[in-house]
Design goal:
Layout (H helix, E strand, L loop, with lengths): L8 H12 L18 H13 L3 E5 L2 H11 L7 E5 L4 H9 L3 E5 L9 H7 L4 E5 L10 H10 L5 E3 L7 E2 L2 E2 L6 E5 L12 E5 L2 H11 L27 H33 L5 E2 L6 E2 L4 E5 L3 H13 L23 H4 L3 H7 L1 H7 L2 E5 L6 H18 L1
Parallel strand pairs: 2-3, 2-4, 5-8
Antiparallel strand pairs: 1-9, 6-7, 6-11, 8-9, 10-12, 12-13
Bound molecules: pyridoxal-5'-phosphate.
Length: 389
């Protein structure tokens, strides 16, 4: 699962080297004191190379990456932005924070945005779509992109939970106009906090870069203190400490994904023999990150019983149901004003998602576990599931 399992001496050494090199913790300036090292910039280049995209802008968090991307896309107060009902609260917060209105569409058996619902939710106020590749699995991108194209709407991928997954021959999260990534403490690679915006569009990149840094245009002919500006901005910069850690974690990413996939397949094959148990539907072109395996049971009651048995045996879940209040819009009454809905309207609108989510259990897949231990864990999860059927 996440990079936090692998935080160790390599990350510590990288921080020590940063201090040995002059201890400049700021991404810009101090040119004569930093031994010519610009770690945030290096991380951006390496991240863009990993994904195969032209531009990457590091920022302070995934939430900031979403907000800045919306600003770069020109989303304004009063606009509507469509996203999915099952996501982390940050997706909606980023929309609300710029005065726009989040519109939640229901999920389908992929546990991501239902493309049919998406098309029905589009109005003349809709200005962007944010599909969220939740827990390492792609949205039905081909369908979503076809709808976006038909209505001439930009797509911002919330790829915060899917670093390492693939879509056909490409990395997932590189197919849309612009994408947001997170390196918070629970993600595939971590920097404590941190985020990234990626795109192949130079103007979107420049707007994101300027906004995240008080409007600085980064004019190379001028010292930073004389830099030019065209839009107002804010401070969402990443620090050099975050960047040195993230660079080390990026080197571990292929290993993390490989381990995820091996351990996932051990669990999947142990559970696949259980009659009546279903797995989350994965779109054909998607090769998931495999940091989570989601099972679907027959009813809410059976699911509840299983979760209780898991808890009694010390087997945890991931987001569903353990942190569902932060990942399912049905619970976000505190946003009702911004959504333009009452609590009852919100709950009624999201009933189809609720019916799917209350039958699901998300099982985390760990990286640092031996085959032997994984086989034993898979067998004990399988036998617990059998007790509720
Ligand atoms: C789907 C999704 N979007 C956005 C975020 C926000 O990322 P951050 O915690 O880096 O602000 C997260 C983090 O949990 C997430 O899971």
């Amino acid at each position: 699962m996440p990079g936090y399992e692998l935080i160790g001496k390599e990350e510590r050494n990288a921080v020590n080297e940063l201090f040995d090199d002059g201890g400049i913790l700021f991404a810009h300036g101090f040119d004569s004191m930093r031994n010519n090292r610009y770690h945030v910039r290096e991380f951006e280049e390496q991240f863009a190379d990993y994904l195969g995209v032209k531009y990457a802008q590091a920022v302070s968090s995934g939430t900031a990456a979403l907000k800045i991307s919306l600003i770069a896309l020109g989303i304004k107060r009063g606009d509507e932005v469509i996203t999915q009902a099952f996501t982390f609260v940050a997706t909606a917060e980023a929309i609300l924070d710029i005065g726009a209105k989040p519109v939640f569409v229901n999920i389908n058996e992929t546990l991501n945005m239902d493309p049919d619902e998406l098309e029905n939710a589009i109005t003349e106020k809709t200005k962007a779509i944010i599909p969220v590749h939740m827990l390492g699995v792609a949205t039905e991108q081909d369908k979503i992109h076809a709808i976006a194209k038909k209505h001439n709407l930009p797509v911002l991928d919330d790829a915060c939970e899917s670093l390492g997954a693939e879509w056909g021959n490409e990395k997932l999260g590189t197919q849309s106009d612009i994408s947001a990534w997170s390196f918070d403490a629970g993600k595939t690679i971590i920097a404590g906090e941190g985020g990234m915006i990626t795109t192949n569009d130079r103007e979107l990149y420049m707007l994101a870069r300027e906004y995240h840094d008080h409007g600085h245009m980064g004019n190379e002919k001028l010292p930073r203190g004389r830099d030019t500006h065209r839009i107002h901005g804010f401070n969402y910069r990443m620090t050099e400490i975050q960047a040195v850690i993230a660079k080390v974690q990026l080197k571990k990413l292929d290993y993390i994904v490989k381990q995820n996939r091996e351990n996932y397949s051990i669990l999947e094959s142990a559970l696949s023999e259980i009659n009546g148990l279903k797995f989350r539907k994965i779109p054909n072109q998607c090769k998931p990150l495999c940091d989570t395996l989601i099972i679907q049971l027959g009813s809410k009651n059976i699911t509840k019983k299983l979760v209780e048995r898991f808890a009694a045996e010390g087997i945890g879940t991931k987001n569903v149901p353990d942190a569902i209040e932060w990942h399912f819009a049905k619970y976000w009454d505190h946003m009702c004003d911004g959504l333009g809905l009452t609590h009852d309207e919100l709950v009624t609108q999201l009933k189809p998602s609720n019916e799917i989510i209350e039958r699901c259990v998300a099982l985390p897949i760990m990286v640092k576990v031996s085959d032997d231990a994984m086989n034993k864990k898979a067998a004990s999860i399988a036998s617990l599931i059998k007790t509720v059927f």
